[in-house]
Amino acid sequence: MDTEVNPEHPARGASVPKRPAPRLPGREPELGRLTALFPVALGGSAASAVLVGEFGMGKSATLRTAAALAADAGFTVAVATGSRLESHLPGGLVRQLADALEEPGAPPRPPIGELCGPAGESEALDLFFRIVRDATERGPLFLGIDNVHLADAWSMRCLAYLRNRVLDLPVFILLTALTGHPPHREVALLEMAGCTPATITLNGLGDAAAAEILGIAPGELVSACREATGGNPYLLQALRPRLLPGADPHELGSSLIGQVLHTRMQEFPHAPAILHAAAVLGEDAAFDLLAKLAGVDELDALQAIDTMVRLHVLNNSSQPTLTYSFVRNSLLKDMPRTTRAVNHSRAAKLLTETGAPAERVAAHLLEATSIRIPWAVDVLRLSARDAVFSGRPELAARHLRRALEERLTSGRRMAVLLQLAHAEFQFDPPGAAKRVREAVDTVGNRETAAYIATAMLLSLCGGQDARLGISAAGQIAARLDAGGPDAVWPLLCMTYLAEAGSRLGPPPEFRDFEEQWAPLTDPAAQRSRSALLALDAVRNGESAQDAVGHFADALTGDNGDLFEQHYFFTLATAVLSDEPAHVDRLCRVLDVEREPWDVHVPHGALPTLARGIALQASGDLQRASVHFESLLRRFDERGGTTTCPVGVLCAAKLVECWVDLGRFEAATSLLDRMDFVASQGLFTHTYLLYARGRLRVATGYTRFGFEDLLSCGRRLAHHGMRFPGFVPWRAHAARAALALGQTDDAARLAEEDMTASARWGAPRPLGTALTTLGLVREDDEAERALQKSITTLRSSPARLQLATALTELGTLQARHGQSEKAIETLRQAVELSEQCGARPLARRAAEELRSARRALTPAKDNEHGLTRQENRIAVMAAQGLTNREIATALHLTRRTVELHLSGAYRKLGIPGRAELGGALAKSSQRVDGR
């Protein structure tokens, strides 16, 4: 990689003739610093400089250019070059300088080479000094010593001897040396260059100079080439003929460069072995792995790594990788294919033993194509799974094609082919369909095939991916159909669930589906049947008792695959949230050791989410939000918050929690980063609409919130979902309609909710519907509905809904003048809402409580103990206003006005309205008389 392979290198030992200085792209600053030192030597004093750089950085070319510039400036120029192959010959480098400085026609002198050695050392040193001194008498002298680190020891001593004796002579000495080359044991570089030489380091070229060497215009390609080579001129020249259209510079290399570098490292013990190990390991080149792969003792490996780091062949970091990708590729190209494959397989094994990520192990397995590695299949599949998850399906396909090269059973081959179909589906849908058919053709063992197809259904979230899984599962189920219903039922069940959750319309009626496969005898099939019966009960919204019973039957086994299906999990938690024992059982079934099939779902996410939903249902909002927040962070890390059905469900439930907690800004921020368009194809998008609708209503955007809630209802109807407890959208839509003055819409929604909830029969939705009914009804009917709501909700864990019903009843009682009852009811509401952490509800209940207490306090301007409300209504009645007019003015019902007037008559001791004016006047006079 240095000047020894450059045909333009000048003949060693010869004076450089005067000629135009060659242009050196990108080295103008360094040459400027060198020429700035010329006046010192031209003025009669010695000057020196040291030019250092890594292999191929252009030290020799810079020295030649500087020598040509010196010749133009009037120097006599002599250049000598150190050589690795001549470093053992005493005096070789000094002989080159002496021959170049010999004056034509001068009397012959003893050859300086013959004097080298212990016997003639003093005479030889003096002779070399006299040659230099005599040359300076003819004019200023430029001495260039290239690759001084490769000079023989005797020549180094000569240069050190000379340096201190030419201080007052017009001599400019320029030495070039390799960065980090181990110093000679006898002579240091500064002893040859002087104590304070100008030191110039040659770094990589910039884009402009690199573009000139490559012969292309500056741009992204040039930047990539410079990055791949570090701007090293020699490497750029080697890269240039390989830079074909479309080529990636980071993947290019030259076997010639690999040979040169390997040869250069031969002089350092164990360096070639470490060098090859670093090339194979790449970014995985940790110290211990380098030593093991190279088969070198750790102390010896450390010494070799230290040397190559100083030479800038390896990076100076905890991961001593090769400095440039072009160098690594060159070393790999110089390595025989079999040797390279074996080394990559060994590297993969070492990385596996250290617990490295599957992707890093798989990168080496891809290169070990001629080696059979049975354990590699699982690693390649796991890495492919992660690659698809991170948006790199082409890489995943490469890993899976490599896995197919191994000897596989029919079941494993089918699994790999289906996984490959999923990866290829991202960029080649027709090719993916062919892979599915190929996988179906490999079906052998029925149970294995059904298990693999089920796993595929569970691993694909929704949208087009889910359609691929359903298609594959359907083809496999048709292939397995000959084995009878027990052989195919679990797979058909999972296919049905997946299809129910991914289609835009309602799935087929389960009763029709069940008739095709009954009777069943296998326990797993029986549990599957129970699961689908539960789903059918939920969709029809007929009986909570039947749905819970079927869910309980489905939970009797240990296999939780059904409950991992996104659609089924969402509905199961919605139904079971009020059943603590069943929630615990569900969490135990879901809490498995293996990673979830879906890469977006973190380990343990489903039981955590189920517990959070149960806590929210019981009114423990703070603890529920902690569950949701911690889980959402993990979904964010995996990029599944807006694309995975479970991630969307988690985000929606957290928004709902924050709305009840009064954390409106946090809820708004979370919804702002949700992709409502991308999630539209997911069933759990319904939860997202519901959460946004509630937030908008709570923050004053009532019209928009009302539309979101109606959209939520339309989606549920489109899915054929009649279960009223999935999301109580009608209850909140009715409140929004009341706020918007749409009383007819509010009454209709309340009646529909009441009908659906009564049919379902569970306390929570029924109590919620009764509360809504109390808001749209008047007088006694409203109070009866709210009283019944409270009684119903007290039999359920729904504390937040109970607090809401108590608040509404207390407000109604206060409005009807039943202040004593209102105070007790609202006190319970405040206490319960504060326990739930529902700050907006607690504030409202507290405000109503204060109003009720004020209303109960007698007015100060009458002696008969009329309350403020009674006194106000009595005065208005005495002025001639009718009960209807008073009710309208004070926003009360006529029944409330009548109740207040009856209380006033009794306290004033009068029979009716006719005596009201006089009684109020007498009361006022007595108060004034005091």
TrEMBL record:
GO cellular component, one term: cytoplasm
Organism this protein belongs to: Amycolatopsis vancoresmycina DSM 44592
PROSITE patterns, per the entry: HTH_LUXR_2 (PS50043), TPR (PS50005)
SMART domains recorded: HTH_LUXR (SM00421), TPR (SM00028)
The protein, known as: LuxR family transcriptional regulator fused with ATPase domain
Gene Ontology molecular function: adenylate cyclase activity; ATP binding; DNA binding
Region entry Disordered, spans: 1-28
PANTHER family cross-referenced by the UniProt entry: TESTICULAR SOLUBLE ADENYLYL CYCLASE (PTHR16305), TRANSCRIPTIONAL ACTIVATOR DOMAIN (PTHR16305:SF35)
Domain HTH luxR-type: 859-924
Biased composition (Basic and acidic residues): 1-11
Keyword hit for Nucleotide-binding: yes
SUPFAM superfamilies tied to this protein: C-terminal effector domain of the bipartite response regulators (SSF46894), P-loop containing nucleoside triphosphate hydrolases (SSF52540), TPR-like (SSF48452)
GO terms of biological process kind: regulation of DNA-templated transcription
TPR repeats, residue ranges: 803-836
Alphabetical keyword list: ATP-binding, Nucleotide-binding, TPR repeat
